[in-house]
Structure formats: structure tokens, C-alpha cells
Write a structure and sequence with these properties.
InterPro entries: RNaseH-like_sf. By secondary structure, the chain is α/β, with parallel strands linked by helices. The protein has helices at 78-97, 121-125, 174-181, 203-207, 229-239, 245-258, 261-272, 284-289, and strands at residues 15-37, 40-62, 65-72, 110-114, 134-142, 145-153, 159-164. Helix content is 28%, strand content 29%. The chain starts with 14 loop residues before the first strand and ends with a helix.
Length: 291
């Protein structure tokens, strides 16, 4: 951009957030060396469960406001459906992110951000990022830590750039991220969900019930953790809005994506104060090095 037009520079302000919720599948599979104890073959290492995707939600931040999308296991090919909708929403975001003057070039990919997604969410989505309609054009990281993936739609030319929001901040939880960079209030509060109450064998039966989860459903026996009375009462109040537990899952999943919006917006503006469009860079260090 010519020097005299720098005053027109603006950051990428419109983006998508996403988050997966998971359900454990019981496998009870042994690994490592084997021995026989009381006539039973045992291994020195045991994996009891693996996580499977249960639902996925996104919040779309556009010039006109906020929109949420959600899919879950009840729908066939629900992850592909989520990606299809992301590409569709990205058409408007690409237009929203353009400069008012069409002569100013702008060709930054549409940011799609998860939280801790480099280690978690990308594991579930990566296998669906190449198909007859779209394909991976850029990949940074390895399978255990996928920092950035760019995916281009073969028909529309739209490019989604999957990023981990943790690249731009110090390590912490999603709850801390919302508290540290959000604006406060209920919209920045993370909900609760009783992951240990369901598995791939019973999830539909459990989630189809209309009554709220019990306080004991939120206990984690392995980590010796339990929910506080205050937090459980907040959950009970929230649950009154919903017909069944599936509806509460949707609310919880969407909340995990919507609480990222204000923190990311604030990070965008913080970087822009130093003349940086943070989505041109892939980490907090990269942004800092340009100041």
C-alpha cells in the first residue's frame, strides 16, 4: 500500500470461531509389555477411552452482527455440513473485510479460530479438509500441534485459515482467555457440561431426557473433582430454557464459541494500535516483533 494511503489501513475484523464437544468411546485397550496375573493377561499401560466428536458449533462475527451455527451426531456427515456452512458464511466475511476503495488490494484468508485447537479441535476436523469441493493449500505444524491450516474452496475460491487463538496469548484456559481479554458479564462466562455422564453407547438416551443433569453427574471420579453448589444452581437456571439436554448441549457448545468473540476483537484492536493486522501473523511473538 502506498505510503500516502497508510491512513486507510484497517485490520481484519470479521472472522469465525469454532469448537468441538466430544464423547468418550470405551475401548479398554492394553499397550506395552504383557504379563500374566492370576491367569489373566495384563499390559503395563491401559487406555480406557478415546474421544469422538459429539457436536461442533461456530460463531460468525460479521459487519452486520453475530450468527451461530451448530451440528451434532444426530445429523449425518455433521462435520462436513459445518464446513460447508463455514464456507458459505465466509463469502460475506470476505466482502465485509474488503476496503471501501476497491482499488486497495485485500486478499487475506478468512480466520477460523478455536481455542487450544492446535492440540484438540484440529484433530477432529483435519481429515475433512480435503474432498472434491475443497483442499488444503497451506499447513504449518505437525499432527500433534497444528498451528495453521489454509483450506481453499475449489469453486468459490474462498480460503479459510484455521488458527489457534492461543497463538496470540500466553498459555491458559478458555475461561481465563475470556476473563483476561473479554469485557466481563455473562457473555464472557463459560458454562459447565457433565462429560463423564455420557459415552458413545448411551449419549442419545442420556441427552434426550428432559430433566436437568443431577449434581452428581458433574463429578469426575478420576480427577476427584465435583461441581460447587453455586455453579450447579447457575446450571439449573440455564437449563430451564431448554426442552431437553440436547438443547442444553447446543447452548453450551455455542457459548464456548461466542465467549471467544470479544477477546479476539480486543486483541485485533490492541494490535491495530501498533499498526498490525494480527491475522497477517501466526503468533504473539510475530506480532511483537513487528512493533
Amino acid at each position: 500500500m502506498a505510503y500516502e494511503r497508510l491512513i486507510e489501513f484497517k485490520p481484519t475484523r470479521y472472522f469465525i470461531t469454532y469448537d468441538f464437544e466430544t464423547v468418550p468411546r470405551i475401548i479398554n485397550q492394553g499397550y506395552g509389555s504383557k504379563s500374566v496375573v492370576n491367569g489373566i493377561e495384563v499390559h503395563n499401560s491401559q487406555q480406557h477411552t478415546v474421544l469422538e466428536p459429539l457436536s461442533v458449533a461456530s460463531t460468525i462475527k460479521s459487519k452486520s452482527g453475530i450468527k451461530k451455527i451448530y451440528f451434532d451426531l444426530r445429523q449425518e456427515n455433521f462435520i462436513e455440513k459445518q464446513l460447508e456452512q463455514m464456507f458459505e458464511e465466509a463469502k460475506q466475511l470476505k466482502e465485509d473485510n474488503q476496503y471501501d476503495d476497491p482499488e486497495i488490494p485485500y486478499d487475506i484468508s478468512i480466520p477460523v479460530l478455536g481455542y487450544n485447537s492446535a492440540h484438540f479441535d484440529m484433530v477432529f476436523v483435519i481429515r475433512y479438509l480435503t474432498n472434491p469441493l475443497w483442499h488444503i493449500t497451506s499447513y504449518l505444524g505437525d499432527f500433534t500441534h497444528i498451528k495453521r491450516v489454509e483450506v481453499k474452496h475449489k469453486i468459490t475460491g474462498i480460503i479459510l485459515q484455521f488458527l489457534d487463538a492461543m497463538l496470540f496469548v500466553t498459555k491458559g484456559t478458555l475461561k481465563q482467555f475470556a476473563a483476561d481479554f473479554g469485557n466481563g458479564g455473562k457473555d464472557d462466562q463459560k458454562g459447565v457440561f457433565p462429560y463423564d455422564a455420557i459415552n458413545t453407547d448411551n449419549y442419545n438416551e442420556i441427552l434426550s431426557k428432559s430433566e436437568p443433569f443431577s449434581k452428581e453427574d458433574f463429578n469426575n471420579e478420576l480427577r476427584k473433582e465435583s461441581i460447587t453448589d453455586e455453579t450447579y444452581q447457575i446450571y439449573l437456571e440455564d437449563s430451564k430454557q431448554f426442552k431437553n439436554r440436547w438443547d442444553y448441549l447446543q447452548y453450551y457448545n455455542e457459548q464456548d464459541t461466542s465467549i471467544m468473540i470479544k477477546p479476539i476483537e480486543n486483541l485485533i484492536e490492541m494490535n491495530f494500535e501498533n499498526g498490525i493486522d494480527m491475522f497477517n501473523y501466526i503468533s504473539m511473538a510475530s506480532c511483537a516483533n513487528t512493533i
